[in-house]
Write a structure and sequence with these properties.
Blueprint (H helix, E strand, L loop, with lengths): L11 E5 L2 H9 L10 E9 L4 H5 L1 E8 L2 E8 L11 E5 L13 H5 L7 E17 L2 E14 L2 E14 L3 H13 L3 E2 L4 H9 L19 H19 L8 H20 L7 H30 L2 H22 L2 H16 L9 H4 L3 H17 L10 H21 L6 H36 L6 H5 L4 H20 L6
Antiparallel strand pairs: 1-8, 1-9, 2-3, 2-6, 3-4, 4-5, 6-7, 7-8
Helix pairs in contact: 4-10, 6-7, 6-10, 6-12, 7-8, 8-9, 8-10, 12-13, 13-14, 14-16
Length: about 500
């Protein structure tokens, strides 16, 4: 039987850096002079239909000095099927040799004839072995270019690998390096960089499901879920620009999902570090929210005059967002989150042991029940609630939706998948209606704060009592539909 993987302390960490940051790093006393740079030329192979990638494998040939190495890797959930999910062999040929030493021949069958080069990466690599806080570290600095069809992209990264010693030293070294040069948490490996360069140009990245399965425990599920949120944020972060409002929206969604994951798994996180991190996530989301609110206001107003009046404030909000995203505080937050997910105190505290050991599916069912009860509220009359209470209900609905999306992979039976789709749709309609109500409630303060009370298009956003009654009626109807939606986890 294949060996089941369990959550272990992360022995490696990848950090992205610019050419200027690389020069700053090499100039510091932290990295002693000496290691000669070596050239690495790597080509990734697949079929035109990307059959290997679809099956969860990568195939590459790397020329390192006089040596040519062929590597097949199982990635993602596929890696769980193998005790050692990597096959390496030294080859003399310039094309892959695909025999029974790896699973590819059996996997592709006749399609193996279609395998060809997809993209190449030319890298200059330097490697240091560093003692750090009682640990032995390897630091690899890669700088190079990715070439895919007619596209080119530069790439720079630092990879830290713990060879021996306490895992905390890995993150301590990362923080020290981040003080010398601006480094950002890396979430893409070189294969992902290349395949993304081959695909359509992306303006934003939406959330993707975590690779959960029903045999997991809660302690295995939380870091996987949180990591998908962290990844979504980091993928959208460099895309945030006034001309690309979708990226700031998706970055905020990622942060909200991350906060929700911390909240959902709160019984397992009985430590002050979690509280500090969630407050920092809230702060960062608030900064991005200033730009997002202006995007929404501009869209809702639908007036060129209003857009023109908003533009200086909107440009300033985006400039502030960029400053914050590039700040030491934000970079450090990403490192703190990565460390917490891998080796945070929650992984060993006795007070969370019972929850950690729960089957993830059991934990998910209880969490979904608890969150559903808060949104259901015994078929409350929305007309009887004030704006603040309706806002709280909206937040509860959002958290329930995120939880449902997190845990859907655990309930993959066909009948449950159909039920899950209907449940999410009903919850989404309720969220939309509650969102429109919230827009009406917050518009007066926002319009006044921006000095737009004299603008007819802005005043139109305030709505009337009749508009509010209609929205409440529509939200109440959506709430009834949600209450009647069957639970997919029961």
């Amino acid at each position: 039987m294949p060996q089941q993987k369990t959550m272990v302390s992360a022995p490696e960490l990848t950090l992205d850096l610019t050419p200027d940051a690389a020069a700053m790093l090499c100039a510091t006393d932290l990295l002693p002079a000496g290691p000669a740079a070596i050239a690495v030329h790597t080509t990734y192979f697949d079929t035109p239909a990307r059959d290997l990638a679809a099956a969860g494998f990568t195939l590459r040939l790397s020329q390192i000095g006089d040596e040519r190495i062929q590597t097949v890797c199982a990635t993602g959930a596929t890696a769980d099927l193998f005790v050692l999910p990597e096959w390496r062999q030294t080859e003399a040929a310039a094309l892959p040799v695909l025999d029974d030493r790896s699973p590819i021949a059996a996997l592709l069958g006749a399609r193996i004839a279609n395998i060809g080069p997809q993209f190449s990466i030319v890298t200059t690599r330097r490697t240091w072995n560093l003692p750090w806080q009682g640990a032995d570290m390897e630091l690899v600095l890669d700088q190079g270019k990715i070439m895919a069809a007619d596209r080119r992209s530069t790439r720079g990264e630092v990879r830290l690998a713990l060879r021996d010693g306490p895992p905390g030293a890995l993150y301590a070294l990362a923080r020290r390096l981040n003080e010398v040069a601006p480094l950002r948490l890396g979430v893409l490996d070189e294969a992902e960089h290349g395949f993304r360069l081959l695909g359509p140009m992306l303006h934003m990245d939406k959330a993707i499901p975590a690779a959960l399965h029903r045999d997991m425990t809660a302690v295995e599920g939380f870091p996987l879920i949180a990591a998908t949120c962290l990844r979504q944020f980091r993928l959208n972060e460099p895309l945030i620009d006034p001309g690309n409002p979708d990226a700031v929206h998706q970055a905020r969604v990622a942060l909200r999902r991350l906060r929700s994951a911390f909240s959902i798994f709160r019984p397992m996180l009985p430590d002050e570090v979690a509280n500090r991190l969630t407050q920092e996530i809230r702060w960062l989301a608030g900064i991005l929210g200033q730009a997002r609110d202006l995007d929404v206001l501009r869209h809702r107003g639908g007036s060129e005059t209003l857009s023109a009046r908003l533009e200086p404030t909107r440009a300033a909000a985006y400039a502030q967002a960029r400053l914050v995203l590039e700040s030491h505080r934000t970079r450090l937050l990403m490192l703190d989150l990565a460390e917490y997910l891998a080796i945070g105190p929650w992984t060993t505290l006795p007070s969370g042991a019972e929850t950690r050991d729960l089957p993830l599916r059991e934990f998910a069912s209880a969490a979904l029940d608890r969150l559903r009860r808060k949104v259901k509220k015994d078929r409350i009359d929305l007309a009887d609630l004030d704006d603040k209470a309706r806002h709280e209900l909206r937040k509860d609905a959002k958290k329930l939706r995120y939880a449902a999306e997190f845990f859907i992979p655990l309930f993959a039976e066909r009948c449950r998948k159909r039920r899950a789709g209907r449940f999410i749709d009903a919850l989404g309609r309720l969220q939309d209606r509650m969102g429109l109500l919230n827009d009406l409630a917050t518009a007066p303060e926002l319009v006044a704060r921006l000095g737009l009370a004299d603008d007819p298009a802005a005043r139109a956003l305030l709505g009337t009592d009749r508009d509010k009654r209609r929205q409440i009626e529509a939200a109440a109807e959506a709430h009834e539909v949600f209450v009647d939606a069957k639970r997919f986890w029961r």
